[in-house]
Amino acid sequence: MKREFSTSLRLTAVAATVIAGLTVTTSYAQEDKDLKPAVKTATQINESAANSQVKINTITDQIDSKLQQFKTINKEIDGLDIYNNQLRKQIDSQMKEMAALNASIDDVSVIERQITPLMMRMIEGLEQFVALDVPFLAEERNQRITSLKDMMDRADIAPSEKFRRVMEAYQVEMDYGRTLEAYAGLHTIDGQERNVDFLRVGRTALIYQTRDAALQGSWNKQSGQWEALPSSYRTQVTKGLRMAKKQLAPDLLMLPVAITD
To answer: Domain residues of the chain, as ranges?
Structure first.
């Protein structure tokens, strides 16, 4: 009886253990079943969070890029502002220059109206001076005056160029007064036209000598006529002609000079 009772107790215990194990297993299975949705939801949340973080990172990079572009554009704008300010200053300066030029143009018009009569008077004065001066290079000098008169009637020559040429003619005449010159030409002696060499000593003396050096004469300012020179001047006149032609070094000359009051 005892053995049977003991066996029965053992079976009861085993059964209880099996039932308990089955109960625990059933409980775990139930919990696992209950946790699966939560785990799935958590996984989805984590995946969504990861995707959101990627988007955030992308947006952050875009913001940084846009910010950098904004800073770059701001620098360009600052540079353009400085450049525009400088251009405005230059434009203001140019406008002032334009105003000054316009004023100068107006002044030039007034000056042009005044300077043209002045040049005409200067040419007339130069013509009178040449007519009363020692008669050297008469054809060349008269031709220069004729050219000046023709120039004044031309519209294709600027007033400034006309004035320059008139002043140039005056300068040429001034230079005649301080130079020594020899040139060939024709001169009437005793009613006969002969080839001679002229010697001009500034405006002090104008002398001729025939090519054979047989005759020589000088211009008398007081009488306004040519006068023959004695043969004693032959050597000095020949010497002066050679000096003027750069054939002889400068030296003292003994030539007749008219005394004027």
So the answer is: 93-176, 179-261
